[in-house]
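Hi Prof. W.,

I finally got the LexA repressor prediction working! I wasn't sure whether to trim anything, so I left the full sequence exactly as given:
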Amino acid sequence: MPHDTILSAHPAPPSLALPYPLALGRAGLAGFPSPAQDYEGRTLDLNERLVKRPSATFYMNVTGDSMMRLGIHEGDLLLVDRSIEPRPGHILVAMVDGEITVKRYERLGNQPYLCSGNTRYAPIPLEDLDCQVWGVVRAVIHEYPV
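And this is what came out:
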């Protein structure tokens, strides 16, 4: 899955604390929380929540459909951390034979593979390929059209 842009995170991102209600958003049918709970003075700064190591973090836009079943869609923004040691199950950004790709790292048998979230794409065996891991995906930002 090629990329559109790669941007480095700011080494000391400015604080941007936004309101963060105490109430949990329910995805199912349930009653509504009390409006009094909506604003209890809590705030959330996404830099503090998502960017653990600014000097090792970059952002990347996604193109393609190979990771849709894993919640990564065309146009999504990935937050990638270069300091995390890749383990099976992690979603990686890697350069494989000269092409940037986003795939889940898995071991099938005793062999390492990069696997997509779309059954149309076969797992990529890493045994004889030139593969450079750029980082582990920590977060996906998916915007809905408004």
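Strands lie at 3-8, 18-19, 43-44, 57-62, 77-81, 91-96, 99-108, 111-115, 124-125, 131-141. Does that look reasonable to you?

Thanks,
D.
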